[in-house]
Amino acid sequence: MMPPFLLQAAASSIGKPNAVAMSFFFFFIAVTLGITYWAARKTRTTEQFYAAGRSVTAGQNGFALAGDYMSAASFLGIAGLVSTTGFDGLIYSTGWLVGWPVVLFLVAEPLRNLGKYTFADVLATRLQQAPVRIAAAVGTLSTVIFYLIAQMVGGGSLIKLMFGLSYETAVVIVGAAMIAYVIFGGMLATTWVQIVKAALLLGGAAALAFMVLLKFGMNPLALFAAASAKYGTGMLAPGKLVAIPLDTISLGMALMFGTAGLPHILMRFYTVPDAKAARKSVFYATGLIGFFYLLTFILGFGAMVLVGPDAIKAVDKGGNMAAPLLAEYLGGTPFLGFIAAVAFATILAVVAGLTLSGAAALSHDLWTSVVRKGQARAGEELKVARGAALVLGVIAVVLGIVFKGQNVAFMVSLAFAIAASANFPALVLSIFWRRCTTQGAVASMVAGTLGTLLLIWLSPVIQIDILKHTAAWFPLKNPAVVTIPGSFLIGIVVSLLTSDSKAVDGYDGSVRDMIDGARAA
Amino acid sequence: MASSHHSLAASRWRIAIALTAIVIVIYFGFIALIAYQKEWMGSLIAPGLSVGILFGAIVIVASWLTTWFYVWWANHHYDAKLDELKREGR
Prior knowledge:
The structure holds two protein chains of two kinds. Chain A has helices at 4-11, 19-40, 46-51, 58-69, 72-85, 89-114, 120-124, 129-163, 167-214, 220-231, 245-258, 263-267, 275-306, 309-315, 322-371, 380-402, 409-432, 438-457, 460-466, 480-497, 501-505, 507-516. Chain A is mainly alpha-helical. Chain A has a single domain (15-410), classed as Sodium/glucose cotransporter, CATH 1.20.1730.10. Chain B has one domain (2-89). Chain B is built from three helices and two strands, in the order H-H-E-E-H. Chain B has helices at 2-36, 38-42, 51-89; strands at residues 44-46, 49-50. In chain B, strands 1-2 form a two-stranded antiparallel ribbon. The N and C termini of chain B lie close together (11 Å). The model of chain B has no long low-confidence stretch (mean pLDDT 88).
């Protein structure tokens, strides 16, 4: 007799070639390549390539920010976590949202008014170009590479699970599509891919949540009550995910301050015409993302009650298939196909945004500003940017294949921890503190990057889970509680110990520009 | 002119810091309750509604309200002062 979990797995058509999924998937690829073709004809200058000619409206940018941010981890991961552990998954839902008010209050408008293409532009307005751009590029590229690997490996296995394609084929398809969007269509194509994806994801998740609620008299509380009746009231209470309280706080800090240091998110503020549009776009994005995370409550508990944690874990141990299984339960194979295609689109839009921001750090910050000292020939920066996007895309595919089957979940928290510890403190200090010096900003970024890498290496995630040692030198899974205050402190102390008269004298001018928005109108 | 720019920048800075502090207190209050008051967070207010789930939803709504308040303030007060400043500058 077959063990029960095999019966369950056999009942699902996940992983079998699915005509509906394939048609949705090819339709999405065709539409986005059409957008890329259209965008390519409007992408002739560096400003068009990096910033879509600053022609994106606040509403469009709100959708694009949401599309850039809501990764497969938040859709499939949170639904899976809630469906198998209940309440604990909600820690992620809330943490990923509360970064947005911080982005709005502290960085969006100053960034738009002081910079042109990258967040390093803001640091370079009054600090010395070469050192801050090199340090910021290191922070940017570390964030982008770790985030890309996590998306590629996660995406490859998800697509393998859902479409039955081989892992390598899936990674190569994702890589090829993302390179095409970025190289030919630049920011304009990337923006519209993100808008289409955000609409699909929100529409798909809302439809799924609606169908769940129909079964519970449109009352979410009836759904939660059913979950606790079936699997115990513990499902509505914090559980074992929060075994070490300080770790929960550390994770919360990384999620909250990391968003304001993610290069692909920050870059989006340069695509709108002015600071007011940047401000409004965060308002729209916060509304959309918050709505989406409220839906994940419903999807997660819906999958728990209707599909069941054991059936979900039988298909994928991590629980990532909870939302697709729920779709199959509620709408059969066609709906499963639609949700699978949405998950694919989700991964594509996020990796395209990441690649573009990494390419901007390489070409705008390192090549044009540091190597060429701002004197690049006309058209040269654009060529370098496209080349950089190609190189980054190929690296992402290769690393995606190299890390096949590895536990890379920690890489997303690593990307957030570096963004929060290397990029965010230096950005805030340089915008708001007159005494911030070049040395202080560089020290803060370098210490933030290296400190995060070192502490993750020494953490239980690497030492115990991956290297199978018995103990870890650093007790927390996430180092942000140490590294964020640490890099603020290092930035402040080094600034106070050094003198940088150009930086201090330039502060009044930068405050004026921060308000007037004179630099990149 | 520089001083009026500085006072406008300072007014935005005060609002930004205050709102950031509010969001930090709400979110880390939620996290601290999860970390240190597990049982209470799991107690039921109504069938299906635990304190923790209610607070989670409140964190999301509070994020909306604080961003809405900031955008409202900036669109009305900050932008009006900024326009005034730009007119004087000419």
